[in-house]
Amino acid sequence: MQIRPTSQLNQTSGVSFNQSRPAGSVQQPAQMPVDQVELSFEARMLAGAQTDSVRTERVANIKAEIANGVYETPEKLDAALSRMLDELV
To answer: 88 lies in which domain range?
Structure first.
């Protein structure tokens, strides 16, 4: 993550009294800087990948297949790779 300042935050402004201003005139404060956040491409990809619809039963079945050594077949690996490449393009 990169954080880039949009203004100089270490500048201080003192209070000064100008004797030559007419009575009743009000000095307008300088505009305050506005904070900005910019998400990287990677952060947007990760945010899009998160989903609440995780099917716990399906995940448990896949974990069992992996543990038993029957999940990873050449066909499944090709299909997974193909889906991953489709998402990146």
So the answer is: 55-89
